[in-house]
Amino acid sequence: MIFVTGGAGFIGSNFVVDWLAPRAPGGAAPGEPVLVLDCLTYAGNLANLAAVRSHPGLRFERQDICDGAAVLALLRQHRPRALLHFAAESHVDRSIRGPAEFVRTNINGTFALLEAVRAFLAELPGTERDAFRFLHVSTDEVYGSLGPADPAFSETTAYAPNSPYAASKAASDHLVRAYRHTYGLPVLTTNCSNNYGPFQFPEKLIPLVTLQALQGKPLPVYGDGSNVRDWLFVEDHCSAIRAVLERGRVGETYNIGGNSERKNLQVVTAICALVDELRPNATLQPRSNLLTYVTDRPGHDRRYAINAEKIKRELGWEPAEAFESGLRKTVAWYLDHADWIENVRTGAYLEWIEKNYGERVAQ
Ligand code: NAD
Ligand code: DAU
Q: Alpha helices, DSSP H only, in 38-133?
């Protein structure tokens, strides 16, 4: 069994669904059980796991990662071979409005998990302990901002986080590193670029713009729209994480990227063209007319770019999806999943969670 924290969020749920799916030759063991630990914040949604709801390999615990004693009890109960740590507060704009929750989950939560794993491993026989992996899912934002001609971030680029989100992730990376050096914890860290794909909460650029364009509402572009991100289709991030889990060298960090640098304006106009094509509407199109420049994000990082040579060289991983085809799939998914969107938007699923889990106790 593996543990996945944050498995009801965007990337975590894509990973879990993918993990439990029948796998092509050479992939991870198909259907190895997974226990999702997720406290279901606004970004956590059990509907993201609907495709595997009745899969015998899926277990779910509504669990705050900051409660280290409870996490340790679950580790003792299930004796997983790995813990994959996706859980986080993940939205930069929210971190600017309210950093405290980012410090709590991203720093204290990671610390609590590391302590729980350290105590758990101390009780294990040598072979099981040696085989265990703590895989920490992190971000390229820890490296700060690049100029137009700067080389892409590599694993040796100095940390220079600029937002409270990035700083909290950087702090968690440092804790993970320290637990390797001080206590010998079998850790792996991944630093990935911007993901996009199905089930991303519509606060992030691509789903937000898609839904605004569909409804004929303004498309908010921060600053001059020239900020650059390197976009990676979420399924490629999942396959990279599987490769690192199975073949990554303990104690190493791996950068993961899509080789797809785009200016925000390019992304927004590409989404508009796709929505025009897939949902033609004579009154609304061209949807690019809805583009609206708005006040910039404070401290807005100008450019991210990932040098993903190490993971390619050592583990043979490369992204499989081109940005244009991945964006088409993603926009089509949002246009075809009105129920999921309505559910997320109205908060109906949050009420449901309160009703369904509020009075339950873990068995
Ligand atoms: P998300 O916000 O969609 O999901 C986060 C999940 O964590 C949610 O299910 C939420 O309920 C859960 N969670 C939050 N606080 C928790 C707590 N205290 N205890 C238990 N569960 C908690 O995030 P995402 O976009 O899926 O990102 C997943 C991870 O990948 C994060 O660590 C993020 O930093 C990293 N990452 C994201 C991207 C990206 O583009 N989205 C890129 C690189 C790295
Ligand atoms: O680089 C990896 C990071 O990518 C992850 O660690 C974060 O969890 C994830 O949220 C993402 O961070 P960004 O801040 O880059 O993503 P976001 O979708 O919020 O913004 C992408 C770009 O679009 C960024 O330059 C800001 C801009 N933007 C965003 C929004 C929400 C706009 O112009 N308008 C908007 O309304």
A: 68-78, 92-97, 100-102, 110-122, 126-131
Q: How far is the CA of 138 from the centre of ligand 2 (A)?
A: 15
- pTM beyond 0.85: the answer is yes
pLDDT per residue over 17-67, tens digit each? Answer: 999 987 655 544 566 999 999 999 999 999 999 999 999 999 999 999 999
Q: CA-CA distance, 14 to 277, in Å (whole number)?
A: 27
pLDDT of residue 272: 98
321 touches ligand 2 (CB under 6 Å): no
Nearest ligand atom owner, CA of 306: 2
* Inter-residue contact 237 to 298 (CB < 8 Å): no
Q: What is the pLDDT of residue 363?
A: 46
109 lines ligand 1 (CB under 6 A): yes
**Which residues of the chain are under the pLDDT cut of 50?**
27-28, 363
CA–CA separation, 327 and 234 (whole Å): 11
Whether 133 and 245 have beta carbons less than 8 Å apart is answered as yes
Residue 264's H or E segment, with its range, is helix 264-278
- Residue 151 burial (C-beta neighbours within 10 Å; 0-12, 13-18, 19+): exposed
Catalytic residues, by residue number, are 140-141, 165
Task: Please identify, by atom number, the ligand 1 atom nearest to the C-alpha of residue 201.
Answer: 3
**Does ligand 2 have an atom closer than 6 angstroms to the CB of 194?**
yes
